[in-house]
Every structure is written in C-alpha cells, then in structure tokens.
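Intended use. Records such as the G0/G1 switch protein 2 entry shown here are meant for training and evaluating sequence-to-structure methods. They are not intended to support clinical decisions.
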Amino acid sequence: MESVQELIPLAKEMMAQKPRGKLVKLYVLGSVLALFGVVLGLVETVCSPFTAASRLRDQEAAVVELREACEQQSLHKQALLAGGKAQEATLCSRALSLRQHAS
C-alpha cells in the first residue's frame, strides 16, 4: 500500500465481500500496530534533536571535568616538584654548613 488512497478502496472491497469477524479483527489489529509504529517514528524524529543536544552537553561536561582533573594533577605535581627542590636546597645548604664546621 503506497498511499491512503489505495487503502480506502481496499477497505470498501473487503466490506463488500462480508469477511468473517476474525479476519476483520486481524486487519484492524495490523492497522493499529502500523499506525502505532508511524506515531513512534514521528515522535522519535521530533525528539531526536533534543536528545542529540543533551548528549552533546554531557560530552562537553565530561571534557571539562577531565581538563580540570588534569590541571589539578599537574598543579599537584608542580607543587611536589617545587617542595622537593626546596627540600633538596635545604639539605644541600645544611650539608655545606656541616662540612665547613668539620674542616
């Protein structure tokens, strides 16, 4: 069935042949399921831009969180390196001062 215009003559022809009740119920069930599928397809088409936008926002938020974590980690490493260098400088100056006293 390519169009609704072909569906109406088919329904008229079926009613003219006086089909059994079970057959009519089967056709009605098939038609309802097909209509339900069309409605779901339309809803999905209408709502897909919104879901794509929310996915994009979620991805951007995840990227921002990763960048912040990397920045915090690099700052922590820099602080450790700076603290280590200061500690080494203190140890070296102590070692030199102790050596001067020993000689």
